[in-house]
Thioesterase domain-containing protein (Hypholoma sublateritium), 150 residues
Amino acid sequence: MVEPISINLKSRVRSDYVYFLSYRTRWSDNDQYSHMNNSIYYHLFDSIVNTYLIEQCGMDPKLSPQIGLVVSSYCQFFAPLGFPQVLDLGLRVDRLGNSSVTYEVGVFEQGKNSPAAVGGYTHVFVESESRKSSKMETETRRGLERLHKL
């Protein structure tokens, strides 16, 4: 098993990310402590990744012969966020395999250069019908290569 490279995610900055999507927080994103609930961060990760896959990789969740299934995820929190802030989500690819990809998402308060949180997950691409692992589609791979920061 390959051990992940230890990276200080708190030191990430906007320029470490390739693709961005804005998100306007909602009142319902806050928890009882008046900051964004930790589960919302995973909604944000799904939103930016799937927006990118649809817009830049030609994937259609209802019709594509292949889908990505999440097999692992993580998030590190550095500063609180909450309604009514506007956030910028930054996306990059850290690892790109034959049938899997590891994404990283930086969550930035609009106008800030340091992330409030960094997280992500690994997708394994599978055939839509059988759910068996399969080699990544060419168009998907090309789109993801544009996000791969070495």
